[in-house]
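hi! just following up on the protien thing from before. the input was this:
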Amino acid sequence: MPAAAPTLREHGGDGTAADPGHPLRARFRGGRAALLAVALFLCVRALSLAALTVRAAETGRSPRVLLSERWDSLWYTRVAEHGYAFTLNAPDGRSLSSMAFFPLLPWLERGTRAVTGLSLPAAGLLVTTLASVLAAWAVHLVVRHSYGDRAGVVCVVLWAAVPVGIVQSMAYSEALFTALAAWGLLCVLRERWVAAGVLASLAGLTRPVGLAVTAALFLAVWLRHRPGTGTGTAAPARARAVLGCLVAPVGAAAYILWVGSRRGHLLGYLDVQDEWGNGFDGGWAFARFLTGGSAALAVLALAALLLLAYWPHHIGAKQLQPPPLIAYSALVTLLAIGASGYFGSKPRLLLPAFPLLIPLAVVLARRRPALTWTALTALATASAVYGAYWLTGSGPP
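and the predicted 3d structure came back as:
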């Protein structure tokens, strides 16, 4: 009987077979690949910042202000400086509360200022810079776990070169959240349940979508320990899995319950979001926005959005992408598309959904190096130019 063909997971993303007989050599190669991934990530970020500096000079703007003292970054520094006592009365009569912003980034900004003496905006940039590097490192390790070093490196560059990649260099929470989520997912894949639960809880203190990391952990634990799998599990391992699952939702739940206590009822956080115009309608408002308000066209647009969201997950499943990664990116994508808030936010809300890039990374990793790096260079250049014009224009909300 012929041997079964090796799966992609049994080979590196570059098509080379694994070398289980030389673990130290494999670890050394993996370390070099991780350094390469982080170095290339920093190159893409430097290119983006250079383009922003040139464009800002042309328009008489300050790159530092654009990156750390506008939009959401101002709200995070307000929380770091004043706590959650700030409310903005909007011209349309709404009361916009700072409680819409989760606390981990402001806490880190305040702690960084205390240690370094930097201003809060500068502290936010430092936190974001370090978090983005940690995120790139973790993205490489997550992809490498199933597809090999080359695919991991390519995926990091793709993530750095997405059109709104400049947000990775802003005093926003996306870089911090992606770092916590990616390291949490890596712990899930390695079955380090308690560490995964702690990281999921911290992700939940960063953004409400942190619950997607919790969902990925729950799914992985269920797949590993469900009855009928035929794999015996020692009691200590089961206990660690249960503990990880108990810890994972604590961060988000604690903050939401705290807001509820401040607002006088359990679901007070939903009231805060509603005042900001945020909610979840499955993407209906977004589809109507894209089609100019036409209900008939909105139905078609919503169907197209759902198909576009489904396609990379379908390809990922065919490429043997681990189910927890698919669950995580699917939830992040669903919440981003289905939110009824400001529509200009959606590209950056998708930034943490890096598993969406894995199918393309695997394809590019298998191509000739000249083609791969030409494509990545073109994408990075386009991202840098787009980000520079985006931030000096309307920019992110």
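Residues 1-21 have pLDDT under 50 and may be disordered.
The first helix runs from residue 23 to 59.
cheers
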